[in-house]
Amino acid sequence: MKQRPITRRKLVLLGSAVALVKMTGASSASTATATLGFDELYGKISVLGLSFSDKVKGLAEAEVSMQGFMAPPLKAEANFFVLTEIPMALCPFCSSDADWPYNIVVIYLDEAQTFEQANAPIEVSGRLEVGSWTDPETGFVSLLRIVDAHFRTA
User: Do residues 50 and 102 lie in contact, with contact meaning Cβ atoms separated by under 8 Å?
Assistant: First the structure.
């Protein structure tokens, strides 16, 4: 069987197809949202403090979704709230990251909105920020945040 030479046209088409496959694969992987549970936040909880899990470290700056409950907010409409593992009667604000409860995540919304009942389960999606940070407006200290977030009733 005689092998036909590859023409310039076939080479350009092949290159375009390969580039398209690479672009499609990269974009779908980068837009995938990982699900994160409260039990996956920390690798170790000890008297020395909290250490982030490998999953959290790997998802830093990635899009994530979490389910939980909205802690009672400070006011009816704002651009942030605290997501908790279980419904809470009081807001779990802390004075420092040393006092940070292991089962909460601060949620910074993409825009201010009216909040849900504290006992209704919700699902939050946004970009995960990892590490101690102090909000310059409120002075609230957090270890984990989901930013540019939105939520819906779960």
Answer: yes
